[in-house]
Amino acid sequence: RLHHAGYIAYLVGGGVRDLLLGKKPKDFDVVTDARPGELRKLFRNSRIIGRRFRLVQVFFKGGHIVEVSTFRRRSEFDELAENEASPAKETTYGTPAEDAQRRDLTINGLFYNIGDFSLVDYVGGMEDLAAKRIRVIGEPSVRFVRDPVRMLRVLRHAARIGFTIDAAAWKEILTLGHLIRTCPPARVRDELLKDFHSGAARPFFELMLSSKLFYAIFPAWAGRLGASGEGRLLELIGRLDLVVQNGYPLSDSLLWAVFLTAFIEPELKPREFKDLRDFIQEKIKAALGGIEFPRARQDEVSQMLALEARLAPLLAKGQPIPVRLTRLTLYTATWLLHQFKTAPEAELLERCDPEALPAPPPPAKRRRQRRRRPRRGRGREKRAGGGAGEG
């Protein structure tokens, strides 16, 4: 529709990259020279989102959304770093070549032109795809200083598609990794959750550990894990990958609980449940450092870890679990946590199959209490007394 209306319209980003790699894209993004207002006129089934940098979301049947943006001159992080006073609507728009230069990685800066079915490459992305290389567009030192989260994205793409990281980018990650602490904690947390859910979390965390970016985000783990601790952490995360790759749904709380096991597990000792939960909560705060962790999520994770510590001896001995524990909301997730920690890898998928999970027993029926009727004798005395008083 954009093409027939006389606009330039390119597919861009991960969708183009995945198609070139023979993978099925999760979604598609479109970039065009049409302005947001013009896009809204063309696509009534759309809405404009964003304040400083406006995007148009076009809605299709089945809940599918295509995001359409206008060619821009600089990235939002570059402009924010330069303390731009206002969005400057007219001056932020740019050409296709300028738009390509503002993107993070060369393999994500490729355009597919629907007008003549050609690939448009302003950044050398095709060469890097052929060389299986992750390379930053522009100077890595400058790009990482302006937005340190780009370092996480470099590691993520290398982990997910098995590419090597360009030497210049790797050198700057080793040098500038500490800058990740300047990013909003909630943003870093959300970025890490993407990798937990990706099915490629183990290679990502291997790169995180070897680059020391892991210890920049989680300083309390430094000097604590050692080679065996890092091995245990990667083993647990690898188990997560196995289950995620097979499409089994895992809650965010369960993902964090599996991750934090490597930090907390060595110090778990038998104690009262409340004391154990309080102990675990303090350890979670120390383990996550500057990561913003919502209180409700922290409570769920600490209860899950404490409950698993209580269930583990019973499950190991094959003893029955008290019914009151199986009725807890977090029991199924806690049972899964135990499987991630102890199940033989060959049996893990079978045990984590949603159809094989233990179903909680039905809630206990509450006995209806019968209303007690007042004794007749007392009622007569009351009525008699009242009558006498009134007389």
**Structural class of the secondary structure composition?**
alpha+beta
The best one-word shape is globular
Beta-strand portion reads: 5-15%
Chain-averaged pLDDT: 87
- Please provide the count of β strands: 9
- Output the radius of gyration: 29 Å
- List unreliable stretches of 5+ residues: 81-90, 387-391
Helix content: 40-55%
Report the total helices: 20
Distance between the termini: 95 Å
Order of helices and strands: EHEHEEEHHHEEHEHHEHHHHHHHHHHHH
**What does the largest sheet look like?**
7 strands, mixed
Strand order of the largest sheet: 3-4-5-2-1-6-7
Short description:
Helices cover 53% and strands 9% of the residues. The protein is an alpha+beta fold. A hairpin with a 5-residue loop joins strand 4 and strand 5 (65-70).
Describe the structure.
- This protein has 391 residues and is α+β, with helices and mostly antiparallel strands.
- The protein is built from 20 helices and nine strands.
- The chain has helices at 14-20, 36-42, 76-81, 89-92, 96-101, 125-131, 140-146, 149-161, 167-176, 185-196, 201-211, 213-217, 226-245, 252-264, 273-288, 295-317, 323-326, 331-342, 345-352, 376-390, and strands spanning 9-12, 29-32, 46-49, 55-59, 65-70, 110-113, 118-121, 133-134, 164-165.
- The protein has a seven-stranded mixed β-sheet with strand order 3-4-5-2-1-6-7. Strands 8-9 form a two-stranded parallel ribbon.
- Strand 4 and strand 5 form a beta hairpin.
- The longest helix has 23 residues, at 295-317.
- It is globular and about 90 Å long.
- The N and C termini lie far apart (95 Å).
- The model is unreliable at 81-90 and 387-391 (pLDDT under 50).
